[in-house]
Amino acid sequence: MNPVALRLLNQQLISPQFDNPEEVVEYMGAIQAQEYRLVRWAVAMRTRKPSSSAFKRAFDSGKIIRLHLMRGTWQLVSAKDYWPLIGLCGPKAMAVTRGWMASNKISLPEKEVESVRDILLHTAADKGSVVKEDFVQALAERGIRMDDHRLSYHIRLSEISGFLCSGNLSPMKATYALTASKVGPKRDTDRDEALITLTRKYFRSRQPATMEDFVWWSGLNAGDCRRGVELLGDYLSVERWRGREFYFTEDRRARGFRKGRYLLIPPYDEYLISYKSRDIVLPADHKHRAHNNSGIFQPVIARDGVICGNWTPFQANHQASFFIGDHDTDLLEEWEGYKAFLR
User: How far apart (Å, rounded) are the C-alpha atoms in residues 244 and 229?
Assistant: First the structure.
């Protein structure tokens, strides 16, 4: 087994199979979206012809949705998966968020939550796509003033409850819109069906991966994750590698890997954040170059799937530093592909 090559293939980082950004997001199930600008590259680099305009079209049309969900963090999900994931992951995300509120000594009485939510929803309905400053102004017009931290929790609760989601794509700022307008009315879904779908998409796109990886990534309880695996039955198989049990799907991609390929990977990319243990592609001695213990991830370079350096986005010329190996080959081809995507 070559787990690095398998992950590159099944994460669509080499020999990608998709033409459209929305196909990538639906295939992956969810994509980490902390970095508002660079998540566009995280999706596009998994398509045959990366295009920022194609991403914007998919985002503005509501085929791709950004919201707080799994582990209480930012995710991209497809419109098709939105309501099933809200139903499946929303309760745990709500518990996580309220736990953070308690640790920050922030209490939001239910009456306040309902009244502020009404204002947020009316503002989004009036303007279609809004930024946080629009909410601040609408609240101020009604004599309500609160600090940014408190308002952020109000917005997040509305997201997790399925009332607000992302609006149109802006260059720099997160936007919000009514979910009913962007995605469509609420759809009740069977929990087991949603769990089967999420489990299948995770292992199909992240394989080989362990049960611990899936629990970490999904933010669900371990019991739910084990049930998801059980419900998939023979679709999943297990193979031991270096003392750990890894799951595979019966339709895994195993061909198409070629050596010598560099990848410019954005921060928070699923290539790392999908797994609790990242040592397969990131040597433990260098993990601080990719992320810190507080969950802040950096842009990294991979060669043949192994993380070996860092790069700097949004520069006129590519800037790279390597911490593994002697890399005298420059990254011009990959950099030009990234710059072409930005245009």
Answer: 17
Q: Is 56 helix (H, G, I), strand (E, B) or coil?
A: helix
Backbone angles phi and psi of 306, in degrees to 5: -95, 130
Q: Note the helical H segments in 31-131.
A: 39-44, 52-60, 79-103, 110-127
List, in sequence order, every residue forming a beta bridge with 31; answer none if it has no partner. Answer: 76
pTM exceeds 0.85 for this model: yes
| In the chain, domain spans | 16-188+260-343
pLDDT at position 148 is 94
Torsion of CA 202, 223, 70, 162, to 10 degrees: 110
- DSSP 8-class letter at 209: B
How far apart are alpha carbons 211 and 203 in whole angstroms?
Answer: 10
Nearest to 203 by CA among 1, 6, 337, 2: 6
- ∠ at Cα 113 (109, 117), nearest 5°? 170
pLDDT tens for 293-337 read: 888 999 999 999 999 999 999 887 778 888 887 666 678 889 999
Q: CB neighbours (10 Å) of residue 323?
A: 16
- Distance between CA atoms of residues 304 and 323, nearest Å: 15
Q: Say how far apart CA 127 and CA 13 lie, in whole Å.
A: 38
The tens digit of pLDDT for each residue in 159-172 reads 999 999 999 999 99
DSSP classification of residue 72:
G
